[in-house]
Amino acid sequence: MNFRWKYNPTYLRIKYGLKQVLIPLIIFQFIRTIILPTSFDVVILGILALTYVAIALDWC
What is the mean pLDDT of residues 10-20? Predict the structure, then answer.
């Protein structure tokens, strides 16, 4: 049987591992942004949130 993976298993492992790590990072960055809002903190929070959404909706 010639079965081919849709995605490389290593890529999927990294993708789902990153998804698990992003939640605590987003929460920490959100608290940090609430306490001391700087433009850098807001940009980092936005990047983290967009990365999580992209992984959750299978955009990448």
Answer: 89
Question: Amino acid identity, residue 52?
Answer: Y
Q: What is the CA radius of gyration of the chain?
A: 15
What number is the average pLDDT over the span 41-47? 95
Is 5 in a helix, a strand, or coil? coil
Encoded amino acid at 55, one letter: I
Pairwise CA distance, residues 4 & 32, whole Å: 44
3-state DSSP call for residue 10? helix
pLDDT computed for residue 1 by the predictor: 55
* Dihedral angle over CA of 42, 45, 47, 52, nearest 10: -160
